[in-house]
Design brief:
Helix content is 53%, strand content 0%. The relative contact order is 0.07. By secondary structure, it is mostly helical. It is built from 1 helix and no strands. The longest helix has 27 residues, at 23-49. It has one helix at 23-49.
Length: 51
């Protein structure tokens, strides 16, 4: 099996400066994310039990 030659890529684009996020918005985002993860975990466990 032959290896493909590496391709030259252009310069990487740098991300712009990070924006400030207020604590309340961040807290709401994290809380929502935790809820979604917990719900997905419950679905996966239920699917394994009912197989």
């Amino acid at each position: 099996m032959t290896k493909r030659p590496l391709q030259a890529h252009g310069p990487r684009k740098r991300a712009g400066p990070a924006t400030e996020i207020d604590a309340q918005s961040y807290s709401a985002f994290v809380g929502d994310l935790k809820t979604k993860i917990a719900e997905a975990s419950i679905v996966l466990v239920y699917q394994r039990i009912t197989k």
